[in-house]
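thought: fold this chain, then report.
action: predict
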Amino acid sequence: MRFMGKVGCLDSVEDGILKGWAQDEERITPAVVDLAVNGQFLDTIACSEYRPDLVEAGRGCGDHGFTYPLPASYMQSRANVSVRFAGGGPFLHNGERVLPDFTKRFLISEALFSRALSRGLWCIDEMSLSDRAVAITGWCIPPALGRLPVALTHNGNVLEDLVRFPRNDIAIKLDLPRDEIGFGFKARGPIVSAGKTHQFAFEQPLARRPFDANQTIHFVACERPLPPEDLRVRAHGSTEENSFMKEGSTVYVQIERILKTYFAKQFEDFASILDWGCGSGRSLRYFTHDALSKLTGIDIDRDAIQWCQQAFPEGRFRTVGATPPTALPPASFDLIYANSVLTHLRQMDQLLWIEELHRLARPGGVLLLTTFGEVAWWGRKFPSDRFVEWRLVRGGFYEGGRNENLAALGIGDYYRNVFVSADYILNTWSRFFEIIDFIPAGIGNLQDLTILRKQAG
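observation:
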């Protein structure tokens, strides 16, 4: 709409986020607009975001855009929203809109998040370690999305210098247009005792207990070489070294903790170990010499297997086909684990491999297998309305599209993003194994862990 040099448009109202642009052609400074909901003033904002489409349309340098997340209260009811030039100026084109009714979607999201995030969730995005100090940044969601106090600790010591701030990207994953709690954090503190092992925890500050004991994050210093960038991307989706080491350390420590808790054993206590989908050894880097000497690693990535053969000469590594059976002899292993493998296989491929693992396991053998579940559904921002389809229509098995991490292997669309419910696992895998336990987000604060055992006889 044009009015005495004032022109602009409210382009969209999606997921509670207003997007548009406004330009006052008679002024050099950015245009300023007033926002109102149901006739009540909400906010005044400057329109200064850069948008290349505005440049293409001849709108100066293109820095006239705006993005505004509405408060969460407007996600649960219909409302009239308006955007006009500040001080009673003209409305923008399409500047008077009715918000859609988000109630149905909000209820579905609330049901999902109340389960997936019932014990809270957190993530370290960046980490800095020196001989004297540690600093981390990331996000944390207290249990049940509550406005609860939190503490972050390093090796049991509270990081006193903690600052929380909004992370609207996390809020949008929760179907909240605005972070009104402060999901983001920066924390730092002195290193009380230097060492190679660093454990970080997300805790209730007064009780000094983790919201979930399985959610600790680990960084273990390791002298073994890192794989090259292309192999890190295939296993990790990123070339970032610290992130690769943090994820590998965390998976290693969490699996060993599971073995100690459920079976009073360490890796070294098993006579033969199979790492199905070992990749380039993201977790194997932290195995002791004795544990590696008992380990066989298999993967469809020939380059990764060749790397492991050089990096971990104590172990045995083989390339296998995408479809079983393998050439490994039956009843060969008393521990089999797979991290981030079944997360990417279609239903029939999953079942073929489950049957193969049953063939390879010794009677009484232990299996630790990860899958994508509700937390991963949230983390990867799959639509809330499809959650009902996954759980009720598709029987708890959902293919979420192609994963490109292994595109270099030329395996077409074999590698997928797959989500599996606990009910599906309990009903299907129990035909092959005794199911000991199911731990939501038990590995890496993302993947569900199922603990199984092959019955004797």
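thought: worth noting. The chain has three domains: 2-101, 111-220, 229-453.
final: tokens above.
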